[in-house]
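Friendly challenge for the regulars: who can give me the structure tokens for this chain first? No prize, just bragging rights.
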Amino acid sequence: MDTDSDSLKYKRVLLKLSGEALMGNKQFGIDTKTVEAICGQVIEIKKLGAEVAIVVGGGNIFRGLAASERGMDRVTGDNMGMLATVINSLAMMDTLEQMGAYTRVMSAMNLESFAEPYIKRRAIRHMEKGRLVILAGGTGNPFFSTDTAASLRAMEVDADLMIKATNVDGVYSGDPRTDSNAKLIQSISFMDVLKLDLRVMDLTAISLLKDNNIPVRVVSMHEAGILKRVLCGEEIGTLIS
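First reply, four minutes later:
Bragging rights claimed.
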């Protein structure tokens, strides 16, 4: 396989990682070996010539919605959740830079001591210059998930594809953990995701991607070489388009 951008089906990609993807086998927090494995895959597609932006969730540290269900003010909980995404983003930045990559963490919140403010044109310029851009802080507003933030950023940076990398290898007809008859759905439309109320992403995120015609490939982040395979056009996981 060619190791240049001509071998890529998608040149500019937004990678959405769940916070849980950074936990490895832990129940909480960040597993160093898991982060190293994920960052190794990111470096691999970067070397192929891909322009990469990353949005990472914060559920491995704090979930604002879950806290609000236990009585915490929703805005306070969501603000804490957005700060959790910054912690994860800095962890990824450090690991990527130890591996030799140039990175920029850009935050939707004002955190100028350790992250640039998110500005669309600056983010695109960083990507064009070959830097890995990590977009922290969600949308900067409460009541919006990091899936919605990823969809918004994918639109803003004009991504060819959004990859939603989770702990599951695609979208299933039911919960594969509890339903032995659940089948992997290889391809599905945004409208059918909405109609069937499949909880692969929240409805706001799906609607944004549908309206702006940005396809999503749902894969497991724990498969070796998965990002390279997706960017080179292999039909794996679930395509939502």
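The domain at 5-240 is CATH 3.40.1160.10 (Carbamate kinase). The two ends are 27 Å apart (CA to CA). Your move, everyone else.
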